[in-house]
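[step 3/7] fold_predict: job queued, chain A
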Amino acid sequence: MNIKKLQSTLEGSQAYLVTSPENRRYLTGFASSDGYLLVTKNESVFLTDSRYIEAAQREASGCSEIALLTSFSNQLPEYIKKLGISKIFTEARRLSVAEFKTIEKTLPCECAAEAADEALTSLRRSKNESEKQLILKAQAIAEKAFDHILGVISEGVTEREIALALDFFMLKNGAECVSFETIAVSGKNSSMPHGVPGEKKIEKGDFVTMDFGAVVNGYHSDMTRTVAVGEVSSKQAEVYETVLTAQKKCLGVLRAGVECRFADAAARNVIENAGFGKYFGHGTGHGVGIEIHEEPRLSPKSSQILGIGDVVTVEPGIYIPSEFGVRIEDMAYITENGCENLTKSPKNLIIL
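[step 4/7] structure written:
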């Protein structure tokens, strides 16, 4: 199905050469660290090495031919000639300059940059129902992990122990892997949006921010929750409620046709009006799917327009250096008249 969609964007003797693992998986449903997918208007050839060939022949879908890759420099030119390809589009954004030059030198046809990136980005943005269901399955695992971790967090537990407990729970309960290196930071460390979990022990009065997700059949989930231990100060409570209000405000404006920068501004204005604008330095959200960071981007500089089927995170935050930080993140599925929130975990301030 996905290969046919890509083929519909080609004309005449044009072709795509798909080299990235993420896009090969999106198009064929088969995960591998090595291989080439050659897509013409009417044919699609998947070449992979001896580590994957048997599994690929059994699991890859939509391909006219699945062949053992023994020599890129010999086999690819043969297929170019056999299929009558005159121009090939590459994933230039995913290739090094050296890799592109090797392809350009090896293939007996015109090699163009970036068109494959643009076509695949456009195809991958809009998630169909089956893709949405996979994201929901991944998210359900993450939410169960969140429920579990609430019983683990206490004074004396380390950030690293929290991160490992989240990872282990997700892997034990159906995740093929975790979406990214789990973030679990506390106290002053929570002011670092992408802080690395360390040996710091949780203390009374700490905020604990956890950013994590699971992967199911290649599709990622992504969520962030900030909880408190023991008690919170009036400033902590104010910051938490400001972030929560900003997040809800953004979710409330999401729908097909809305500019991404407008969605970002909906959250950012709340934080700025509360006097915390200088403490919110990143974009409000990003697309999620086969990769943890996809298009579109909810940011002040984005000129993109939300479309039906986009899945985006909504994750405003306030990070006060040497004090604490708060981030709250849900995933939203964009519809014609609004959005469906794919994240069900509670967002009210939880004090453990």
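[step 5/7] annotate
The two ends are 48 Å apart (CA to CA).
The chain is about 35% helix and 20% strand.
exit 0
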